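Thread: quick sanity check before group meeting

JM: Hey all, I'm pulling together slides for Thursday and realized we never actually wrote out the predicted structure for the chain we discussed last week. Dropping the sequence here so it's in one place. If anyone has concerns about the input, flag it before I start.
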Amino acid sequence: MDEVIKSHKKEYGCKPDVVVSAPGRFHLMGEHTWFFRDKTLSMGINLPVYVALSLRKDSELNMQFVQMGEKSRAGMVQLKIKKEDRWTASLKAVLLAFADSGYECSGMDVTIWSEVLPSAGFGITSAIKVAFTWAVGEVFSFKCSDSVLLKIIEKANRKYLSLNNLKADNFTAVYSKEDSLLLTDYSTGSCENIPFSLEGKTVVLTDAEVPRIVTWNEESLFQPENVLLLGELKELRSNVYGGWQYEENRSEIAEVFSVVNEDTKRRLTCVMQEHKNVLDAVNALMKNDFSTFARSVNKSHEVMRDLYDISCPEIDWLLKRLQDIAPSHDYIRSPESCGRITGKGFGRCTYSILRNEDLDKYREKLAEYERIFGFSPKLYEVKPARGVQIL
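JM (edit): ok, ran it. Output follows.
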């Protein structure tokens, strides 16, 4: 807080009228199934974004991102998003969405402070939008409920940023709690906190620093005809968490998928398996059964790697080392650690859940990784954090 206030005062000559924080996040699994109205399991983490805001007497909009060393200026009158805008586009989109919703904003000075940059893919951009939205609502005394503010962010994403799949990102930045994960259900548009015990465990995020490449166009899978195919394979079950599951009969699945090519068939199969992985993980968490939870996480990475084609050798190498660090008599069925690809893009970051005593061994593996692949990984030790807070 002191650093945020100091940076704001240094740039604008006054203390902020409000400071708001929102947590970063990562998705444990299910982030690629939103189009099929499925579930995503996420963790809000203690890598916070701070947004400081003070009102001006004119209609100027001044913005600075401290860690990026970047500043920008615009006018509130006829505010527009330009092609060259990067992080400032998120702020402008939120203000335009407020205006569309009937809320009038005047000039302001804005400071963004985050030790982790948006490029890491840990939900920093979503946290910026959430913190800024809450800050605007507070400083102008709009008296908006959380649901109204979330609708403003959704409008900003859809109308001005052409983003459509960020419900889990927004929910996590708003509703996450300590000692829990957040389960977003796209079929109902709701979310739920799931207890998550970290006793004896450490969660680490590793930015593998692998340059992002796109190996296939994910949008090509998100077609209405594919939704209908998966709909044919859904079964209502009262005894299943969430009320439904996918058909497990291989002959029935093969018949339904006979109308699509092999790549689409493989990726739709991944969507089905990911649904089961999420449900298995949630059920295990409810029972405080780490081995079953960890097995679900490891299986999720396997299907993302083998069926969805989003991993890479560097990511797979990092995750394979978990088995080396914490070998057990039966790592497949009773793992003591787990991990999976996560983050933005096709291969960049992993999360790992380790025994506390294995953290130093993992750091040693990262040094080995750097020698082998030539990339300098960044390690973040994280834990579940609270959602957005007006400070």
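AS: nice. The chain has a mean pLDDT of 94. The CA atoms of residues 200 and 357 lie 8 Å apart.
JM: adding both to the slides.
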